[in-house]
Every structure is written in structure tokens, then in C-alpha cells.
Amino acid sequence: MVNIPEYYEGKNVLITGGTGFIGKVLMEKLLRSCPGVKAVYVMVRPKAGHSPQARVADMINSKLFEKLQDDQPGFAEKIIAVSSDLTQPELGLSKEDQNILAEHVNIVFHCAATVRFNEPLKDAMQLNVLAAQKMVALAHKIKHLEVYIHVSTAYANCDRELIEEVVYPPPVDYRKLIDTVEWMDEKLVSVLTPKLIGEHPNTYTYTKALAEYLVQQEAGNLNVAIVRPSIVGASWKEPFPGWIDNFNGPSGIFIAAGKGILRTMRASNNAVADLVPVDVVINTILAAAWYSGSQRLNRPKNILVYNCTTGGINPFHWGEVEHHINMSFKTNPLDQAFRRPNFRMCSNPFTNHYWTTVSHTLLALLYDGYLRLTGRKPRMMKTITRLHKAVMVLEYFTSHSWVWNTDTVAMLMAQMSPEDKRVFNFDVRQLHWAEYMENYCMGTKKYVLNEELSGLPAARKHLKKLRNIRYTFNTVLVVLIWRVFIARSQMARNIWYFVVNLCFKFLSYFRASSTMRY
Description:
Helix content is 53%, strand content 10%. The chain has helices at residues 4-8, 21-33, 52-60, 66-71, 95-104, 121-141, 174-183, 186-197, 203-218, 250-258, 278-294, 318-331, 349-373, 380-398, 407-415, 418-423, 433-448, 456-486, 490-517; strands spanning 12-16, 39-44, 79-83, 107-110, 147-151, 162-163, 224-229, 231-233, 264-266, 275-277, 304-308, 344-346, 403-404. It is elongated, with a radius of gyration of 27 Å. The termini are far apart.
């Protein structure tokens, strides 16, 4: 087989969700590492008065595309924005655009989806299932289509403990569900949602599972492959270590912990945190398209499914995530942190509820009271409420572990040349988690919050000030407890003197032992 850049040479590529997180990184990597690609059609909907062309122009002027801009100054000429709306009939495409895509496209990457876990079922069906159906219908009209890549999620079948690289049939007929949801009003659908999704934690994973099965059933003679990433995080290496540009997924949690606002959340320290860097996902997608496209004449009967995960190959646990978040943000703090980072993950729901009340709710009420007294608008309780909602939708994933089969991913890697393995690296066995987490936390500071690294000394000084305030507060609290409770009770004083005496003896023994050793 030809190598990956050679395969994409002269090809026309269609991307949905091109302005989303995965879509834009896919576009950047494709153009930078496969300079021979002919054109990239990007389906974009008009938004807030901005045309698709204007939205694409804003995107390619961002930090993400700086490296590509230096390497290939004229790359923007290859990007063609196509006005589209996935919720509309025929994807909102004009007849002219439909004809252009049907005549010219060779490879389709369907990345568009709603990633909101708590999306109403009717909306999630529109964006994740019906849009997939319309995309498959469009793909059937494309005359020279070589491969169709459907981007799903590793959690599409999270109601199972062992997840193989196969498409599982859903518990309901997706056609009947589409018809039912179409005529029902939103209130009735909302009432039926818990019954419909069953063991799935939310509408996102449920509709992604439906979409996979739909693609399998309606693909016909299309050459289709499915890529399932787990929790997509900041980049590992490309285009910059730690690059991230949104608050979605774990990024918002990391930032809240770094600011000292988030102090606790429900999680199992021993559960596997199946984070996967976004560049690993993109390299897997591009390699999967290359392999299926190159083998289209001798392709297997079953759709190839790639579980793009890390837990079974290079496991990393939520307890380790907690440690690295605290260490990273204490070393390289965020500007104007509210409190010193001291994030903890609690497996016990009662312990978590206690710390949530004490460290979040109570403190937010006190701070809002202070704001009111100083004539300012209270805001902390509103922030904490939003944070709690975000944390709650993640609890299911931070409290469970899954086993993913990754044989197809291993097969794909084995088919690649040494040069392709270097340029399109998705071997997560090489991933060093401590370094990755440090870069991830720094990435949230640099690329999401846009904080300058020159401000680090001031941020460290501020953190030291917060530490001193905390020590002073704890000292005053101990004195108050002494004066109010211990000093007034003979028994309490006896216990206090016993504890102090025991500590003094222990320190004396330790000092004597150290002296004898030397």
C-alpha cells in the first residue's frame, strides 16, 4: 500500500463538524501532514450573523493553525466552506452544493454531533441519529467515494462492561424511535426518556449507539469504518503539547480545580480515567481512512470499528488525575486563583456530599454575602450551581471502569510504515501521563484562559498569600476552639495535655534517634 500522505494526494475530503474540537484538529493535521490533498470541503452552518466562510476564516486565524500557516502559507485556498444545517432536510445543502459534493468528494469524515450529555432526547436524536442518516444518504450519491468514516464514542455501549470492536444492536428499532419522537411533543419525550435510554447514563451515549447501528444498516455498499474515541483531552504533541481551546469534558473540571473553586467530586480513585489526547484520535481517524480506502476492493464484510482508548494499553486512574491536577496548578498556578488548589475525589457519596456542602455551598454563600455587603452583585452561588451540574453528568464516567478490545487498532498500527507511525503516531504506550497532565494543565492556562506565562511569578505570589491566609485562619480557629471548649472543661484539658505530651515525646524520640544515627 502507498503511505498515508500519498493516499490523500489529489483527494477531495468532506468534513462535518469542521468548526468543532475534533473537526478543526482533523483539518489542521490533514492539511499539514498531507500537503498533496486537493481540497477540504467543510460543512458549516451560519451562526449569529456570521456566514460559513466567515466562521472558517476566524477558525484558521487561531493559534491552532499557526504552524500550518508557517509551513504552507496558501493552505486556506484548499478549504471550501459549504453552507449546511444538519437538522434541516437534505442537510440544508443547496442543489448546487449537493451536485458539487457528489461529483468531487472522495473521502467523508462525519465528526458532527452534540456532545452535551444532558441534551433533550428529541434534540440529541436530531443531531446524532437523523444527521447520521442524512449523511449516509448523501454518501450514497457521491460518485467517487472511497471511504466513509463515522466518528462515534467509546461510551456508545457503556451499558456493557466488555466492549468489543463491533457494532451492537440497540434495544429498540431506531426507525420506530425516529418516527415516534418526530410526532411526540418535547414534554412527552422527556417523560419517556428514562425508560427509553434504559441502562445508558444519558441521551448522548444512547443516541451515539443508535447512530452506529443506523450507519451499519444503511451503509449498503459504502466502504465504512467507525472510530470510537473515549474522553478526548488536550493534545499530546501536535500541533503543540497541551493545546486545548474549550471548557468541555475534563478541561472545565481541571480549570475549576486550578482556580480553587472545585474542591471535591464523586469518583473512584481506582477507576480508569480513559483520557485520550486529541491528536491520537485524529491520527487514528486519518490512518483508518487510509487503510479502508486502500483496501476498498478487498475490504472485509463487517464494518471495521476502532476503539480509540488508553485504559487497556496504558491505564491511568482518577486518583492519579487528582494528584497531577493539584501538583501542576500549585507549581504553575492560574492567575487570581480563588483558593489554593486542593482538589479531592471521593468514592463515598456521603463524604462527597459533606465536602460539597462545606467547601462549595457554604463558602459560596459566605462569599456572596460579602459581595452584597460591599455593594457588588453576588455571583459565586450561581457559579457553584453550574459547576455542580457539570460535575454530576461526569460522575458516571469517573466512578466506573470498562474493558475495551483494541485488536483492530493494533492491526491498523501493524499495517503502517515506520515513517507513517512517526508522523501519524497513535501508539499510546509511549504516552507519559505525568508529562501529559502537566502540559494539559498548562494548556488550559495558555490556550483556554489566554493567561501569559510572564504572569506566573505574580500567580505564585498570590498562591503563597492564599496559603498564609489559610494558615492564619486555621490558627485562629484552633485558638477559638481552645477558648470556647477546651479551656472550660477539665477533661478536655487533660486530653489536650495528653496529646501534646505524646507529640512532644514522639518528636524527642525522633530527634534522639536521628542524633544516634549520625
